[in-house]
Predict the 3D structure of the following.
Amino acid sequence: MTAVTADRSAEPLPRPARLADVKGWFFTADQLLFDWFLSHQRERSVAGDLLELGAYMGKSAIFLGARLGDGERFTVCDLFDSPAGDAPNSREMAKSYATLTRRAFEANYLAFHDELPVIVQGPSSVVGEHVAADSVRFAHIDASHLYEHVHGDILAVRELLTGAGVVVLDDYRAEHCPGVAAATWQAVTGHGLRPLCLTGTKFYGTWGDPEPYQEALLAWLAGRGDLWHEVQQVNGGPLIRLSAKGAKEPAHPVSRYAAEADAAEAVEAPERPAEKAPEPARASGPAARPAAPRPTAARPPRGVLRRVAVDLLPPVLTRALVRARKRARTQAARP
């Protein structure tokens, strides 16, 4: 039976105003690490191109494209609308990426960049036909979740990376894709991949010397109070584990639709009443003293009902009760 692909050519194309508007999963810790590795390589004149296997709607590709150096080439390989080469991959595509189209990826990418990357539309197994060996300094693997495909992607990327190249593997520990975990750690124990660091969603490694990267990364982490990290020993070498809860995202490329979206939000926002200007503090002596606080009526003690509300109700309902009590007191105080 021949698979029939729905025609989505008439669907409206996305117009993301910011990176967060692009569908996909690319968390703060990994944004910070992508930015750090690419900046670290550039500062040390590590030459090479960028590569992404599996693009979904383009979120991480947009981020990578903003860090592309002069003369460097960025290649993105994805099936997009093409049929998968085997039945298991076809089932995975239908289940996880039913809305994926090349047109949507291109629209998202061009919202932030003037030119598209080099696009290879096909299975990741053909990427070696389009990217030269020893030419890539940073590769992101986020294509199939099936063990056979991920294993093949890792071995293919090994041939494409430079000696100081870094590979990033997505979903190395997600419960719904154990094949990625199996392929990742098999590469560590059996194919010479040296772990550098990992987050909750991505594994970072190299077939080169991990020590210079890890020393510089630990020095950077030591100066970041918003990033937690620890060092464990795995397969005879150190492995940095980090978390970025509450950390600020690095700089994002600016969308060509950002100003348009800001203007629309300003029009839709409700008009707020003008606030009364505060009275200037009166000076007494050589230095101005702050005005004394106005006396306020003593608050009645909180009743049992209020205590129960604060303890048990969700914050939204608790705030609503507090506002209602304030309005009642204000109305009662009016003549």
Summary: Residues 172 and 181 are 5 Å apart (CA to CA). The two ends are 81 Å apart (CA to CA). The beta strands are 49-53, 74-78, 118-121, 136-141, 161-170, 194-198, 202-206, 228-234, 237-243. The chain is about 35% helix and 15% strand.
